[in-house]
Amino acid sequence: MSHAADELWMRRALEIAERGRGHVEPNPLVGAVLVRDGNVVGEGWHQRFGEAHAEVNALQAAGEAARGATLYVTLEPCCHHGKTPPCTDALIQAGIARVVAALADPFPLVATQGVAQLHAAGIAVEIGLCDAEARRQNAPYLKLIHTGRPYVLAKWAMSLDGKIATRTGDSKWISNEASRRKVHELRGRVDGILVGIGTVLVDDPLLTARPAGPRIASRIVLDSKARLPLAAQLVRTAKTVPTIVVVSSSAPAERVDALRDAGCEVLLPSPEHDGAARMPALLDELGKRRWTNLLVEGGSDVLGRFLDVDAIDEVHVFLAPRLIGGSQGKTPFAGRGVETLAHAWNLSAWHVEMLEGDVYLRGWK
């Protein structure tokens, strides 16, 4: 089959893999397309964590037509027993003739072993077609495997002159309803949504996806002094939607106890993780919980701290066609910042979309 045809089918596999986003994490997004004599005979994607993998779903769709077919799959087929049997066994038994995979799977129990098993069974295997697209699609999974930390998405809405609030702190609403719907879509597919105590005290947010998405994100508040009011929406809903309050050793014990009694989980990092080490330590803890995606919504102090420790992987920016002005109007990032443009956080790729007058920019480092 020609390279152009191979690329066509792999792009189809990448397209259907997206249907699992928000449903399969911490597993990777995977799409699979079975092609025989130039025709698709079966398609499948990983639909939900713990359920059948993309390859098995495609084989079931194809039936006997899978024998002698080529499989286009976005990630190396698994070869170990986890929540489901090995995909390599199913492919061998089905009589697949050729496997084209976009990426090798870095998961230690797979990591080239899937390819080796397929080769041993006489199946031709090729790795690397559309690998850049596949890496971006599964960047959160790859980061969790390689670093043990979740993928961090930073989100903010701002005016044309770069303000996220007026000098009085008023920020409702800078962006329009279409932009806010997009934010709710984001919230509905992440493991956690993080803000600082300043944002909570000013806005009293609920930080839920409305309507609900495939995931229910935990809400995280960075609150060193445990100032989070017991009357705040986050606290009043803590027994139904997980709420985590990250405090410091200086937080009053009675405030910590009150938050726990209200249903919040209180995280107290060890003393050596105060200051600049606090954010990396929190990401390590969330990685241990197998979180894949963390959405950081601000405010500017929190976003600045994440930027200062180089912990942002992707940005979602909503630019509204309005001017706020004023030297005291808040900008998206406080913190230390960089000293020279050579050290600035640069986008390597981006996507721009119009949302009923707002400009939505999604960018990757």
Blueprint (SSEs and pairs):
Layout: H1 3-17, E1 31-36, E2 39-45, H2 54-62, E3 70-73, H3 87-94, E4 98-101, H4 113-120, E5 124-127, H5 131-137, H6 139-147, E6 151-158, H7 177-187, E7 192-196, H8 197-203, E8 218-222, H9 233-236, E9 243-246, H10 253-261, E10 265-267, H11 278-288, E11 293-298, H12 300-308, E12 314-319, E13 349-355, E14 358-364
Q: Indicate the structural class.
A: alpha/beta
- The percent of residues in helical segments reads 25-40%
Gross morphology: elongated
Main sheet specs: 9 strands, mixed
Order of helices and strands: HEEHEHEHEHHEHEHEHEHEHEHEEE
What labels describe this entry?
14 strands, alpha/beta, nine-stranded mixed beta sheet, 29% helix
Mind explaining what this structure looks like?
With 365 residues, the protein is of the alpha/beta class. It is built from 12 helices and 14 strands. It has a 9-stranded mixed β-sheet. A 5-stranded mixed β-sheet has the order 2-1-3-4-5, with helices on both faces. Helix 9 links the parallel strand 8 (218-222) and strand 9 (243-246). It is elongated, with a radius of gyration of 23 Å. The mean pLDDT is 93.
